[in-house]
Amino acid sequence: DVSALELSGTDAFDRLYVNSATCGMYWTCWRFVHRRTSALPRFRPGVIHEDVDVLPRYVRSLTKVVISDERLYRYTEAREGAATQVFTPRRVRDALDVTAHNFGQGFDAMLAYNLWGFYKAAKTFPEPERSELLAEFRRHRDWLAAVELPRKTAWLKRLYARFLV
To answer: Which residues pair with residue 4 across a beta bridge?
Structure first.
């Protein structure tokens, strides 16, 4: 039994990126089906995490969005790509860039929450990249402040803050 929900772009944005229990794990391009006549967003060339860079704002700009649980395709992993790579300094650098580019757009908690994995990975990189990336994280403590964790997990935010001092 397939269910569908029709929303405005703004309401879909709030549901998928702002108020999502999964912390906005809906940014990937392959989760969307578009009309051929749609003016799809353009990605910034050479940026990893380009879907996070443009899709939330694109969804917000749409007149109508239909959210459905119908399976419309099957994803087959045929090659290695950004989605299958381990964390690299370039990937972390691009995640920081995408967050800086989008912070203040209304999905700040999602961006800040998802940077935690990148922060942990950066600690394992060789110098001087390690120090540069950790310093970049520390310059953006406001991102951490945007994370809205449930009361039961508030201790996690305090832990984040301690690492970013």
So the answer is: 68
Please check whether residue 66 is in contact with residue 4, taking contact to mean a CB–CB distance below 8 angstroms. Answer: yes
This prediction's pTM? 0.71
SS (H, E, C) 27-76: CCHHHCCCCCCCCCCCCCCCCCCHHHHHHHHHHHHCCCEEEECCCCCCCC
Decide: residue 31, CB within 10 A, 0-12 exposed, 13-18 middle, 19+ buried: middle
What is the Cα–Cα distance from 71 to 63, expressed in whole angstroms?
Answer: 23
User: Degrees (nearest 5) of the Cα angle 19, 54, 157?
Assistant: 40
pLDDT in tens, 61-77: 888 888 887 877 776 76
Cβ pair 42, 93 in contact under 8 A: no
